[in-house]
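User: quick one - fold this with uracil bound?
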Amino acid sequence: MKKNEVMKKLEEKIKTCKKCPLGELRTNAVPGSGSYDAQIMFVGEAPGYWEDQKGLPFVGRAGKVLDELLEGIGLTREEVYITNIVKCRPPNNRDPTEEEIKACSPYLDKQIDVIRPKVIVPLGRHSMAYILKKFGFEPEPISKIHGKTFEAKTLFGKIIIMPMYHPAVALYRPQLREELEKDFKKLKEMLKELS
Ligand code: SF4
Ligand code: URA
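Assistant: Sure. Structure tokens for the protein plus uracil:
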């Protein structure tokens, strides 16, 4: 099966999934958006209010920050792939539970296997912890490791992981927005080296 077909099938499966209790509470599941041939994959935490309304990732206020950060390094949403660890909105935007992450993360694992990105950017500490553990690294405080790179070996080659702060923190802490902008510049430099 072609990449496109596999991804479309997976998205359909996510849209009707009831593997955890969040499936009963959602308006729309949010599989992810962007290019299936993306070199970079951004992984947030879980959909919020607007994402649940629209079925698309990062379309609220944090999404606007992400758009600006992408634009700042000359990238568009269409060139990257954006998704979350958990595909349905937790009530009142609470953190997803361990059980919800366990139930939902196989979808993310599959998205990584099919897209085969060169770089994964976990956004925020929950996503950072999941991705680093998945590839055999120890999670550390996001304040310490944001903008650092971890090289993971996979069956299809190496993946570079560069954790960053969640764009939502930039909304109320301007100094963290500066850190995000610096980390995006590093990402841009790294992409130049990879190409
Ligand atoms: Fe299924 Fe994930 Fe939604 Fe739970 S959060 S119902 S596992 S898609
Ligand atoms: N925050 C996230 O972690 N993901 C989204 O899709 C939106 C906000």
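One thing worth noting: The first strand starts at residue 33 and ends at 34.
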